[in-house]
């Protein structure tokens, strides 16, 4: 396998062409070209995420030294197909500062915009969910919505990617060509599902959110309000408790801060808890660990089965990759997986953007709808629309 020479990060994204893969995570940027081996749809049936990964490695017995790497995007529902492949060429670089590209002048304009559901209907969905929660059928459900944009010309994915990186350089940026060979999953997630290196595991759930404000004082107030909101602290606690419960069997030690901190993206404030553990068995893979906690209540709800049923019943579209996970793993199982949020599926001039919000008994429909609108801004800003 040829390995691309080491380049600076601006050149890495300059080398990106449609059909390539880019993983731009905080400590590691990867540009990959081609697919040496991939897992076809029919090979995935009835298999868990980690069984799919095992099969992928079996199909490619050669080793590639430190570039022995697979890239993947997994769905929310284990039953849906995943995109998993070992690239032909890989280039890795430690990230450093980039220049911002001018979005507006380079991207085509939106022709048609549609929401599924419309804001009014989304608020009705939230009301229904709140009623079910008050009826003690479940504690929390995350409800998403979809914004469909048709552009006047094909969208240049490289520019969108460069804009995402410029706006969110310390987040989990990605562009992965999907198995359907038509579309690309692209986005900038702030949420680490699992990082596993040797005997160490890290996860960093986010739940509880406020939009950022243009005025500095208002913005600070939002963060303060979030840090002491009973509703958001409860919503967050449900996530941390579930992750702790599911990760514990794998860990000798697990450090869980007593209180969340507040982190920011360009568009949002979030409650965040960084959890670190030492594994009993270094041989457990990043994907096994990820699937032990997926879907977390941050993106599905509590209890997971009831929450999944409800979101499936209320959302008028299939999420598929949205709120799944995206990332990379080496053959020895070390790897890093972000939750696929603040993302879109792009196919030529058609783009589907997704955003969701966690609903609990105290949720106010208008506020949850506003939260999804604020979350959509990550992608809209990279498209030069907001
Ligand atoms: C579902 C999304 O975000 C998730 C939901 C959050 C919340 O409800 O506060 C916060 C971060 C994410 O875990 C999304 O961005 O679409």
TrEMBL record:
Top-level enzyme category: isomerase
Gene3D superfamilies: Anthranilate synthase
Domain (Chorismate-utilising enzyme C-terminal) ranges: 119-375
InterPro entries: ADC_synthase (IPR005801), Chorismate_C (IPR015890), IsoChor_synthase (IPR004561)
Alphabetized UniProt keyword annotations: Isomerase
Listed EC numbers: 5.4.4.2
Taxonomy, superkingdom: Bacteria
Gene Ontology terms for molecular function: isochorismate synthase activity
Reactions mediated catalytically: chorismate = isochorismate
Record's keyword annotation contains Isomerase: yes
Record bears the keyword Magnesium: no
Cross-referenced Pfam families: Chorismate_bind (PF00425)
Coiled coil segments of this chain: none
PANTHER family recorded: ISOCHORISMATE SYNTHASE ENTC (PTHR42839)
Protein family membership: Belongs to the isochorismate synthase family.
UniProt name for this protein: isochorismate synthase
Annotated organism of origin: Cytobacillus stercorigallinarum
């Amino acid at each position: 396998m040829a390995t691309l020479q080491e380049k600076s990060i601006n050149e890495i994204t300059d080398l990106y062409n449609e059909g390539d893969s880019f993983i731009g995570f905080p400590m590691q940027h990867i540009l990959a070209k081609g697919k040496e081996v991939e897992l076809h749809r029919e090979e995935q049936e009835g298999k868990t995420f980690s069984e799919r990964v095992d099969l992928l490695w079996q199909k490619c017995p050669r080793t590639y030294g430190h570039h022995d790497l697979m890239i993947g995007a997994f769905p929310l529902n284990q039953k849906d197909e995943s995109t998993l492949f070992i690239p032909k060429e890989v280039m890795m670089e430690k990230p450093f500062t980039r220049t911002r590209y001018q979005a507006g002048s380079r991207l085509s304009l939106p022709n048609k915009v549609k929401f599924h559901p419309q804001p009014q209907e989304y608020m009705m969905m939230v009301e229904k969910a709140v009623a079910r929660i008050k009826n003690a059928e479940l504690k929390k459900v995350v409800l998403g919505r979809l914004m469909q944009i048709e552009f006047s010309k094909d969208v240049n994915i490289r520019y969108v990617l460069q804009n995402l990186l410029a706006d969110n350089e310390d987040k989990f940026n990605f562009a992965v060509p999907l198995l359907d060979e038509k579309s690309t999953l692209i986005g900038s997630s702030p949420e680490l599902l699992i990082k596993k290196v040797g005997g160490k595991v890290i996860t960093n759930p986010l739940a509880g959110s406020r939009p950022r404000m243009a005025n500095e004082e208002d913005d600070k107030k939002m963060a303060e309000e979030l840090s002491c909101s009973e509703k958001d602290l409860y919503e967050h606690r449900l996530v941390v408790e579930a992750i702790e419960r599911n990760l514990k069997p794998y860990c000798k030690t697990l450090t869980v801060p007593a209180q969340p901190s507040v982190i920011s993206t360009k568009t949002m404030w979030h409650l965040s808890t960084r959890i670190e553990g030492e594994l009993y068995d270094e041989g457990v893979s990043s994907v096994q660990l990820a699937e032990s906690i997926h879907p977390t209540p941050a993106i599905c709800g509590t209890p997971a089965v009831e929450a999944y049923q409800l979101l499936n019943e209320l959302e008028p579209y299939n999420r598929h990759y949205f709120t799944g996970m995206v990332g990379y793993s080496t053959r020895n199982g070390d790897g890093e997986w972000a939750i696929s949020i603040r993302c879109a599926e792009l196919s030529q001039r058609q783009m589907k953007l997704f955003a969701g919000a966690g609903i609990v008994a105290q949720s106010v429909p208008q506020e949850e709808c506003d939260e999804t609108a604020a979350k959509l801004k990550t992608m809209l800003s990279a498209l030069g629309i907001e």
